[in-house]
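Operator note (shift B, R.M.): manual run for Long-chain-fatty-acid CoA ligase requested after the automated queue skipped it. Running by hand, logging everything below so the morning shift can see what happened. Input copied straight from the record, untouched. If output looks odd, do not overwrite the archive copy; leave it for review.
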Amino acid sequence: MTSIAEYSTINSLSEIWAIAAKKFPDTIALHDPHNKPEVKLTFAQLYQKLEQFAAGLQVLGVTKDDKISLIADNSPRWFIADQGSMLAGAANAVRSAQADHNEIAYILRDSDSRILIVENLKTLEKIRTFCDEIPLQLIILLSDETPNQQDYIKTLNYTELMELGAKNNLQIIQKDSQDLATLIYTSGTTGQPKGAMLSHKNLLHQVRNLDSVIEPKTGDRALSILPSWHSYERSIEYFLLSQGCTLIYTNIRNFKTDLKQFKPHHMVGVPRLWDSLYEGIQKQFREQSPTQQKIVQFFFNVSQNYILFRRIANNLSLGHFNISGFERFLASLKTALLAPLHQLGDKLVYQKIRDAVGGKFETLVSGGGSLAKHLDDFYEIVNIPVLVGYGLTETSPVTNARTHSHNIRGSSGQPVPETEISIVDPDTRQPLPQGKRGLVLIRGTQVMQGYYKKPEATAKAINADGWFDSGDLGWITPMNDLVITGRAKDTIVLNNGENIEPQPIEDACIRSPYIDQIMLVGQDQKALGALIVPNLDALEKWGQTQQLTLKFPSQDTPQDEIKTSDLYQKPVQDLLRQELNREVKNRPGYRPDDQIKAFELILEPFSVENGLMTQTLKLKRPIVTERYQVMINGMFNS
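Run finished. Output pasted below as returned.
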């Protein structure tokens, strides 16, 4: 691993790449196998392209502290534009090319951008009318398409800019670590997005400290699937590349194939991604013979007990911190007794699962939401090392993370270096004792400078002592691990005054093979309800075992017709109700108010495309509620 000390004296992100180019000149830095033609850039080639891009911008008038909007998606050219613009002295505001045109227009205006770097002509046309209203002086296409010469705003394509840069020398811009590096706009699950101002110091904190979580080696392969502009993927990419890793771009369509082909060592993702991988494996199990399924289930049941006893013995079980030494000794004995069967299961079943995902994983990091218990358990059983991290856009983002040596499932781990966590009463803001649940406050080098041009919102988010209000609820274990229990604003308050955190219950429910997605509802009602996207594949298989001929409607079937379909036959409804009851009651910390009394089925999955999830696959709860308000009302009025 490259010594972090090599980056200890630099003041800006863009200084990393000259160091990396000298240390790993012939190592592949960026690899895009799905581009036509395929793209591979060594660290030496990457730095040369960064210099050309930056010099081209400077020739075209870009100066220190200019704002550049970068509206594009994952590719080597995205990275070149991102770090090339910083090398030129500018700060950038980033967003996906797939974002809604009104959202892009808002970012262009709010960020005071003079320059627009955009994915291609198609994206430019999407926001063309807004460009005329904004004082843009320059547009750069990241494609090689021919710009519209009639456009009154100077427009160049990627190749034209790079040729211009090759003919001119880069003027090195000295940056202060407190200078603005980027504006990352919050996902906007409610209201207008806010631009989180992240300085070079904020982002360098991640480069200098994420080795406490991931310990990569030069040439290690990392698969990139999350949006590069998002703070989570972005900071991890900066860190891994600073260590001489090779970043390989993938996408949802090619993800499973790329796992087998490129055999990555490291990857970061969101819970939905790990759930998708898990469900694919479960689907293969369901297609095996009944005898094979029983064998697999036997080994998983044994291993479930094995990992629990092992956690207890090693003091890594969230629910067993206060037990006696004798109970830990008993857990050690039970671990030893079950070990041979677990190892046999590993040889016959789990090794095949690891091979199917490349067989080389050293670290998977899950973030951007809670990881359901059954997923945490599954990946531990099959020995695919999943760590969970925590943070927000406003904290650059990582503040806490589990590690290989201290991996307490159900937690988000201990704070990374230079980070403090405080749990306070949501109303009084007074600190709470260890173990008590309250509002999570964060203080550290990675906390943003504030929200761009929004001093009131900044003052509300960061108090006079530098504590950032995360908006999350949680508690601290005796070993200083953070356990997140939900979002303060997501809390459902029943009419009996009981507060319900939906996420843990939803995580429990999707353990059922028949439930693909779920969102709890019930604000001001007597009991909880749920909107459920069922797994039709699994339901059809179940129907065959019950000798039921089930015909399910298509995704675009009107909701009133779904109501009269086989999905609402009594056997299917009874099955789903049994699944909900079982999974909710088996959840640690179950209370009677957690029971889901009513549910409705919808066939259109929650997704980024239909506006019901953010780019990092978090539910936009207010928007889902608004879209299905009539159905929710009917659920409780029937």
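Quick read of the result: Residues 325-356 form the longest helix (32 residues). The chain has a mean pLDDT of 93.
Leaving this for review. - R.M.
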